[in-house]
């Protein structure tokens, strides 16, 4: 029995981004310029009027110095974060993106973000543009196989394989077959 796939609440994401931007005392134009997007797009995201690629939300999160998973998560903040498997839900921004995300735990007090990335089957995955972000990334292949495209090279990764890399270099998980894959991803904020 699979867990329910739910769309992300765009108003909730927008409100968190706006809250963080106002707290940082930055204008929409400043954040938009820093992210390489239009002020209009940022305004629509903040008002919950449009879905945005995770890569764009990641750039906005980096610009605001907030964890992406905090933006995507709708659980109350606490010193203890419990996430029973039965209550976890998939977070999907766009079925055509090629990934869905399962946030395992997130607290604003931590610099570590554990997430399960579900890589969709090859025939359903149109994702071609690599991601970049400020955090380091550790991955562990839980199920299936992928090609890890990293810094213009393809690396075959199978169940049990791991990798650790700098997120600032372009990277992408590419499905190799129609079985898809499940990847434990841990984002780690750099301390330097």
UniProtKB/TrEMBL annotation:
InterPro entries per the UniProt record, alphabetical: Cro/C1-type_HTH, Cupin_2, Lambda_DNA-bd_dom_sf, RmlC-like_jellyroll, RmlC_Cupin_sf, TransReg_Diox_bact_type
Domain HTH cro/C1-type intervals: 17-71
Keywords: DNA-binding
Pfam families (alphabetical): Cupin_2, HTH_3
Keyword Electron transport part of the UniProt annotation: no
Molecular function terms, GO-annotated: DNA binding; DNA-binding transcription factor activity
Taxonomic superkingdom: Bacteria
Family annotation (CDD domains): cupin_XRE_C, HTH_XRE
The UniProt record lists the keyword DNA-binding: yes
CC per GO annotation: cytosol
PANTHER family recorded: HTH-TYPE TRANSCRIPTIONAL REGULATOR (PTHR46797), METHYLPHOSPHONATE SYNTHASE (PTHR46797:SF1)
Annotated protein name in UniProt: Transcriptional regulator, XRE family with cupin sensor
Organism lineage string: Bacteria, Bacillati, Bacillota, Bacilli, Bacillales
